[in-house]
Amino acid sequence: MQDEIDVEVYQEDIDVKMSAERQRKGSNNFIKDLKLYQESFSIKVFILKMSLEQFSSSKGSGQVHKIIVIDEERSKIQATLFNATFKIFEEYIHLNNTIIIKKGIVRPTNRKYASVNLNFKLAFGKNTKITVSKNEINISTLPFSFKLFEEVTKTNNKNIFFDVLGFITSVRPLCTTNTSVTREITIMNEKMDTLVLTLWGEHVEKEG
Description:
A hairpin with a 5-residue loop joins strand 10 (181-188) and strand 11. The chain has 2 domains: 2-139, CATH 2.40.50.140; 142-203, no CATH class. By secondary structure, the protein is an alpha+beta fold. The chain has 3 helices and 11 strands; from the N terminus they run αβββαββββαββββ. Mean pLDDT is 80; it is low at 1-19. The strands form 2 sheets. It has a 7-stranded mixed sheet with strand order 5-6-3-2-1-4-7. Strands 8, 9, 10 and 11 form a 4-stranded antiparallel sheet that branches.
């Protein structure tokens, strides 16, 4: 047991040193390199999804922008920006932009509400810097990690993102409410298993 602990700590030391070395050379970290409460890092990511939600708590109310980003290793993480914080970075944060984030804050995530990363999420503070990268990430060239339908349906966290592959067997009509427009489609795999997917946003009416 002691040997296992020593190996784990030693590997963590290596990871930290490699991360620091990339920083020294002006290179970017990968999302998998991030450590809890770390503030000194630089990651290059592609903005995969954006959403805007209203919040209300004992501390006040307002808007929170949630963005999901992906790096060149296809690791994903969610970042949150509240009210005035979003205004600071608004010119850089657009869907499909490749951006470099420096000196964000790595915080623990609530696993109950986690969408892409069970351990960490990003927050932006007064020292955070965001720039648009000249070298864009082409997500069409990134490798996928497809999961079986049964793996998706048996997971304990229904909010986690998955890559799945299937052919469409049915498309339901639009479902419109006061706050959203959605559409359900059913896909099938080679085993004839089916999976119901709910489409949101631009995907609802997008041709194809």
